[in-house]
Model the fold of this input.
Amino acid sequence: MKKTRTILLKTLILVLFISWLPAGILAWSPEPGAQDSTGGVITSSLPLTVSGYVQFLFTGQTEAEDTFSIRRARVSLGGNILKRLRFKLQADLARSPALLDALAEVILDEKLNLRVGQFLVPFSLESTTSAGQLLTINRSRVVDLLVPGRDNGSAGRDIGLAVFGRFSIFDYTLGFLNGSGFNKKDDNDHKDYAGRLTASPARGLTLGFSFYNGRRLDITTSANLIRNRYGLEASWHYHQLHLATEYIFGQDDQTDKCGWYFLGAIDFKPNKYQLVLRLDYFNPDRGLPGQSSLVYTAGANWFLSPLSKMQANFEDHRLESGPDYRVALLHLQVGF
Done:
């Protein structure tokens, strides 16, 4: 009951904040070009942006109940408060807790900027890609189960501060974090740190490296155990072809984990119809036999608008220790 009241309070605060703004500040602009890929722009002396999406999902799995669900229902408010100060608030009304992003950024120049609050951990291409822009319905298992901020069920988020910027062909983000997940205080005396560096040496090609050094509290022994992650990534967009791959290695205390995925997509009609194939592998303990799994995913995407789409995926899960199973997914996203 206490958790439910907290969720309702956070949601009410967000709604009241939006409705509190004077009518002269909030006015949708009808001018051509007043919208971008993140949603409609609210005009003021400095621009504010309201955007969001809802995702409806049908899941059919062998030897399990078929079900309809509301996967996500997200609303974002962001923009510039001052010329060099911007903010973002994002809530997911379909989950608990509801608050996802609550951050402010100080924009100094192209090379050095500051972010503080709750935000995506700077690690992995797929993890830092918005759920509304994924080419498959689900993220790969290695990302969901191993990437910091997702391995603890925090939607890839944590609380802390980060510096970010761009030098020539390089983009970087370096973050200092609690390490305990979203909407939580640090649970130990060790601050975690993470970083992601990407380079774009040629048109359409991006290469990247991520690292994470952290600790997690073992509640049974009160010890701070090692929680380290390293990742390599590459993506290539050439005309109607999209390719992406990642390899991620992790260490939790004495347990070594690893995984990878390879994704390919082709546009049969740009911004309209797309076919996707993905193979992903995950091993939660390299020191034990029979732990690995492979997931084959085949999918089709129909883009109704830049922010709305229908997706159909078929997943074939092959478990080394068995049993294998298959999942059919139908997904509708409505965005604004």
